[in-house]
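Note to self: keep these together.
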Amino acid sequence: MLFFVMVLWTSGIMVAKTIGDSMGALEFSFWRWAVAVIFMAPFAIPRVFTRMREIRSKLRELFLLGTFMAGGSTFLIWSVQMTTVFNASLFSATQPILTATLIFLLFSRALAKVQYLGIILGFFGSLIIISNLDMSLIMRMSFNQGDLLVILAVLFYSLYAIYVNRWLSDFSALSVMFLSSVSTTLILSLIVFAFNNMSFNIHNSGLVGKIVYMAIFPTIIATTMWNAGIKALGPNKSSAFINLMPVLGILVSVKFFKDSVQIHHILGMILTCTGVMFVLRGGKFDKDV
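Structure:
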């Protein structure tokens, strides 16, 4: 399930990269979540209404989860318009490391040694895939505002992964997704309207299609499964799957763009998949973090 989440999120990054100047990142993120709420409402509202008393007692937590998701999704869409795919992919691959660090700082809970090894292997596997083993590319890395936005996006996503099931563990995956989406949409709407950044052209069918795709697949389906995956495995083990996204990029390129598989691709995939296995098999069950 988490592997399929990475497939959908990889496709979402590709779609977000194509919006260009047709819509601002903030507005695109708002419409993505607003449309997701509309699609989920008929299925989720009956479940949510039966637990309104519990929901009212968790308004602060819902506000924070919405802030984490709004920040993560918006900063990531914004960042890919301002930085290179190489930089964005590399910094995104640091999420397992950042998640483990935050869990240690917040809850004084460390990983097993084999899990740290798995995170390191996964990161270097991603680095090999992204860099094509071209050390000059790594040495020539330059940093800009977009790179900072990627780091902020990873930070917000890590916080969401850590707290979503800690705060909403008694709710179904659909209810968690709907409540988080409503909170995210409300927060983004306040920011969008405050900056008068609403310029949506409904006659732009290509843009409408991209928003609907982002709302259904990378948002509703993928993030609902992500929440369920975190509930089953915990944030540390779930975040390890982020390193599979460069591997999926290779598979997409080979399948749809007829690119050839190189030796560094194979090496990177072996290291990445081995790293994920180490993280999954090592340490205690951490879903209660």
